[in-house]
Structures are given as C-alpha cells and as structure tokens.
Amino acid sequence: MATSRIAPAAPAAADRTARLAVTVFPLLVVAAGALGLAAPSRFTGWAPAVPYLLGVVMFTMGLTLTGEDFRAVAKRPWAVGLGLVAHYVIMPGLGWLIATALGLPPQLAAGVILVGCAPSGTASNVVTYLARGDVALSVSVATVSTLVAPLVTPPLTLLLADRFLDVDAGAMFTDILKTVLVPVVGGALVRMVAGRRVARLLGVLPSLSALTIAVLVLIVVSGSAARIKDAAALVLLAVVLHNGLGLALGYAAGRLARLGAPSSRAMAFEVGMQNSGLAASLATAHFSPAAALPAAVFSVWHNVSGAVVAAWMSRRPTAKMSRRPTAETAPGAAGAPSADHPAP
C-alpha cells in the first residue's frame, strides 16, 4: 500500500523484487481461485474468517508505514487531493455505468459498484515503480484513500448501489473501521513504538500478505462456485472494462492537471487498482457470496493488467524521468519498492 525501501546499492534488486511480486502474486491468487472452484464444499465454512483475514492484511500494511509517508502527504496536498478525488469519483462512477450498461443482475451490479467504491489497491505502489512513475505520490494517495475509506466507501455505495440491493451504510462504516482503519492504525503505532523489532520482520510481510489475500479469494470463490459457471464471462467483461477505463482515466486526469508523466502514471494505478480484498469482505458480509465475485476476479485481473501496463510504460521514457530509477524512485529513496512494504 505504501512506500517500499531496500538497500540503496542495488537498483536491479529492486526491479527483481517488484517484478516477482506482480508475477507470483497473481499466479498464487489464480491457484487459490481454481482450488475454491474445484472443491468448494471444503472451504464454504471458512466464510466467517474473511473479516479477520482482511484485518491481518491491513495490519501488515500499518506495520510498513513510517512518519515519512505521512509527511509526504503534507508536502504535496494538491497532487494527493487530486488523486483522492479522481479515485473516489472515477471508479465508483465507472462501476455504476458498467453495471447499468451491461444490465448486470442485482447481486453482481452491487459487487461491481462496491469494488469501485473501495480504496486504492495494495500493489499500486509496486506497479508504479515498475512503470517508472512517481512512487511517492502513489504512496500518499494509497495511504490517504485507505484512511478515509470508512467515511467515503459506505455513502458512495449507498448512493450508487441502493437501487440494486439494500445497503446498510452504518453497518458498513462499522465494518470498515474494524477491518481496515483500526488494524492499519494499530500496525502504524506498533511500528512507531517498536520500529527496530518490526524491521526484522519486514521481509516476511509481503509473503504473509500475499498468502492471506489468496486465502480470501479461495473463500470467496468457493462460496459462489455455483454461480461462476453461469456468470464468469459477464463478470470478467465488467472487471476488464472497469479496470481498463480506470487506468486510462486516471492517467488522463493527471495529464489534464499537468502533473507530468511520472505523476500521471502514478495516478493511473491509484485510480485503476482497487482494494478488492476489502470489497470481497464487505460484499460477503452485507450482500451475498455472488456479490463478491467481481472483487475476486478483480483481485486477479488488476495485478495482471497493472504489470502489463507498467511494462509498456517503462519502455516509454519521459522528459522528467529516464528509464533508470531517478532520485525519487531509486531504491533507498522514499517510495522505492522492497520488503519494507508488502506488495500484494
């Protein structure tokens, strides 16, 4: 979710770490989804564990946050504010438009909209790094979008999805507080108090986060396996459109605001990549397993598409950023991916 740092001596090592994260993680999630689809009866009883698993992911994110991450927000309020508004306007709006245009059944429509109303995806900073984008901006937008999610996600979901299903915004607010804000803040406080001890565990956090999200997808897919065969193509179409248009419009928003190419690349991923684990948890708790299907598919697709788009962008040098990491994105600088922040 936030910045990632490694030893400043090895740019190639940073690239390898980031590429490994966006390569292995989607494969792990695909394998988990396939297992849930092949043997759903073995995992359907795991559904009550979903909020706790998400809490684990959020806590590991909190452990990676440092004071510099929050100071970076104050240094660039205009760019961070633009990223936040773009994220919470473009993706919810696209979710509603796509659900309406495709005539999705109510459960799936609500699920697509809920994905759009979720905060930024937790791998966005790693993908931004691979794209030679503005990692510091990516970190700031992802951090703020997660912290304000309890105040933004429930009312947006109520506004856009209530025509499809009944939405209890108050209960959703409480759930996001418990599963997102409290674990993230708790992790940040632990990092503040016991920074040196936590630093010893940072290398394990990416793997822990990846495994936990894979289990989340396993549970969600197993809970709606019966619906997947009937709705898989329609859900995939909705997810591809949602993610693809989000990436394009996020980049366009940055360019229209004259933020420059590196910052516009960060905007693309902060808008187009969602915290689908949160969306899956909320959909399961407040709607149905079928409503969690779009989030499960999105969790795989946005990592694959993000890696592909990042690879394409990295081969297009800009006036403000060469193909090599700059002082802002070089390993060891604020915002350079590594084990200091979990990639998935």
Could you please describe the fold and organization of this structure?
The protein is mostly helical and 344 residues long. The chain has a single domain (13-314), classed as Na+/H+ antiporter like fold (Up-down Bundle). It is built from 15 helices and no strands. It has helices spanning 11-38, 50-64, 67-75, 77-101, 106-117, 124-130, 135-147, 149-161, 169-193, 195-199, 205-223, 225-256, 261-272, 276-286, 293-314. Residues 319-344 are annotated as: Disordered. Its main location: membrane. It comes from Streptomyces nondiastaticus. It is a multi-pass membrane protein. Residues 327-344 have a biased composition (Low complexity).
Q: Notable features of this structure?
A:
Na+/H+ antiporter like fold, disordered C terminus, 72% helix, mainly alpha, single chain, disordered N terminus, 344 residues
Strand-helix topology:
Elements: H1 11-38, H2 50-64, H3 67-75, H4 77-101, H5 106-117, H6 124-130, H7 135-147, H8 149-161, H9 169-193, H10 195-199, H11 205-223, H12 225-256, H13 261-272, H14 276-286, H15 293-314
In short:
It is found in: Membrane. The protein has 15 helices and no strands.
- SSE topology string: HHHHHHHHHHHHHHH
Beta percentage is under 5%
CATH architecture: Up-down Bundle
What's the count of strands?
A: 0
User: How many helices?
Assistant: 15
Rg to the nearest angstrom? 18 Å
CATH topology annotation:
Na+/H+ antiporter like fold
How can the largest sheet be summarized?
none
Low-confidence stretches: 1-10, 320-344
